[in-house]
């Protein structure tokens, strides 16, 4: 379920990126970047998903260590944690910006 949620957020962000790149505002899902209660709830939802993706990263590392994977697989685990940390940081900054605009 977590992987499906991550892919859904990725697809939604990709669609908004393409719409903004092509300057299409008619069907633009604006609640993603608004400071409305729906936009803040969406940001909280994405922060929750980003936080839970650490579970997947650490599970991958535990399974890799238990099954005696090759040494280079450690880098995949470290890269996954780094990407998740950067994603979580960006989403928290977006949430704080929305809360700041709300005042």
Verbal overview:
The protein has a domain at 47-103. It is built from three helices and no strands. It has helices at residues 2-21, 37-66, 73-102. Helix 1 crosses helix 2. The radius of gyration is 17 Å and the shape is elongated.
Which helices and strands appear, and what pairs or packs with what?
Blueprint: H1 2-21, H2 37-66, H3 73-102
Short description:
This protein is mainly alpha-helical. It has helices at residues 2-21, 37-66, 73-102.
What keywords describe this structure?
103 residues; mainly alpha; 78% helix; elongated
Largest sheet: none
Low-confidence stretches: none
Q: What characteristic shape results from the CA principal axes?
A: elongated
One letter per element, helices H and strands E, the order comes to: HHH
Number of helices: 3
What share of residues are in beta strands? Answer: under 5%
Count of extended strands: 0
Instruction: Give the helix/strand class.
Output: mainly alpha
Q: Mean pLDDT, rounded to whole units? A: 88
What is the rounded Rg? Answer: 17 Å
N→C terminal distance: 35 Å
Helix coverage percent of residues? over 70%
